[in-house]
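Hi V.,

You were right to ask for the full record rather than a summary. Here it is.
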Amino acid sequence: MSDKDFTATISVDQTPEEAFDAINNVRGWWSENITGGTYKLGDEFTYRYKDVHSCKLKIAELITPNKVVWHVLDNRFNFTKGKNEWKGTDIVFEVLKKGHMAEIRFTHRGLVPEYECFVVCSNAWGSYLNGSLRSLITTGKGRPNPKEGDGEEASER
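Predicted structure:
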């Protein structure tokens, strides 16, 4: 892990198990356009946001209720010269018990400032973590990108 990798930490007044379950409910906080499994080791899923971003991920590590790692198998951006900047990176969620709180340490290993998408992607991750995921954990309702074709328009967070 590089000290340049994008990292963020949030704390929630819930158990590590509740936080871990919410993280793995990817459709509940990231996007309703997720296809594939998101709960078991080895599951592969695809994220898509309009024609702006798509990626295929694999659950490479799963230690209930403390850690999940998604390995990015493929990626495509329409807003960068390097269309597949995320390919080969890892998205890591570590869940720790801190008193009565659960602390989620998020690291996107390989998402570094040298990447053209770094600012946009790190801002989006920050918004998803501090907004949608936090809301899903604490209220049971996240704010994922809506399923395309539902008539709702969502902005990339």
